[in-house]
């Protein structure tokens, strides 16, 4: 895969190519390399940085930015970041071309927020407030559910995609230390946002994708953050 230069990035942006997908992959990969370097060279700094940037339900009031930063962190094993980035490259370009760059980014971030709410809901149910989670998989599951909703709306055969999602949801039952709660949260958030974009309020159906994503994405983000705050303080 060739690394694009500035002119090719601008050209790809204007032509609707998946620039944001590439950007997320680069950011996650660079962050993983920084994590790896710090873990080897400065373990104390690494521990401090991870504690303040991964999503830990009990620490969210102290580190509210972890809602965002946790989406771009990954486990020390290269398999975690590699699998997530390959999966993003499979599903992301379709949605970015269909939605546009900024609406796609909103979809990704809202799905990631949904993943964090899934973690908070589990913490509220089980009392496991110090369980840490990080990674792009919650957001990626939201993208898959968005494709599922879009395909269903177009009358496409979605059985293979349903099977794929079911298999990935089952992985935590055979692989330990996988935050399935974030997968479920992202899946639900992505599906809701996609359904709103496809159907939604009748008066907004004729509006552009950017306008609808701004309204629905903004509203759903507020709902998710409010739900997260409620789960913490309730």
TrEMBL record:
The chain crosses the membrane at residues 20-38, 71-92, 104-125, 131-151, 158-176, 182-201, 213-233. Its main location: membrane. It is a multi-pass membrane protein. The keyword Hydrolase applies. GO terms for molecular function: serine-type endopeptidase activity. InterPro entries: Peptidase_S54_rhomboid_dom, Rhomboid-like_sf, Rhomboid_protease_S54. Residues 64-198 form the Peptidase S54 rhomboid domain. GO terms for cellular component: membrane. It is found in: Membrane. Keywords: Hydrolase, Membrane, Transmembrane, Transmembrane helix. The keyword Methyltransferase does not apply. It comes from the Bacteria. This is Peptidase, S54 family. It comes from Bifidobacterium minimum.
């Amino acid at each position: 895969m060739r690394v694009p230069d500035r002119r090719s990035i601008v050209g790809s942006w204007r032509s609707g190519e998946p620039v944001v997908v590439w950007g997320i992959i680069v950011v996650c990969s660079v962050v993983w390399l920084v994590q790896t370097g710090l873990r080897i060279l400065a373990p104390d700094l690494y521990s401090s940085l991870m504690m303040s940037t991964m999503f830990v339900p009990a620490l969210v009031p102290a580190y509210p930015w972890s809602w965002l930063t946790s989406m771009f962190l990954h486990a020390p094993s290269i398999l975690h970041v590699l699998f997530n980035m390959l999966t993003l490259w499979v599903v992301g370009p379709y949605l970015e071309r269909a939605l546009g760059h900024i609406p796609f980014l909103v979809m990704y971030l809202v799905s990631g927020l949904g993943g964090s709410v899934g973690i908070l809901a589990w913490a509220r149910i089980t009392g496991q407030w110090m369980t840490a989670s990080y990674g792009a998989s919650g957001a990626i599951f939201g993208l898959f559910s968005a494709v599922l909703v879009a395909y269903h709306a177009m009358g496409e055969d979605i059985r293979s995609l349903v099977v794929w999602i079911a298999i990935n949801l089952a992985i935590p039952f055979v692989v330990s230390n996988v935050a399935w709660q974030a997968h479920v949260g992202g899946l639900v958030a992505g599906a809701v946002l996609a359904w709103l974009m496809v159907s939604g309020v009748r008066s907004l159906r004729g509006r552009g994708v950017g306008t609808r994503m701004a309204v629905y994405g903004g509203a759903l983000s507020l709902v998710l953050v409010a739900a997260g705050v409620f789960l913490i303080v309730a």
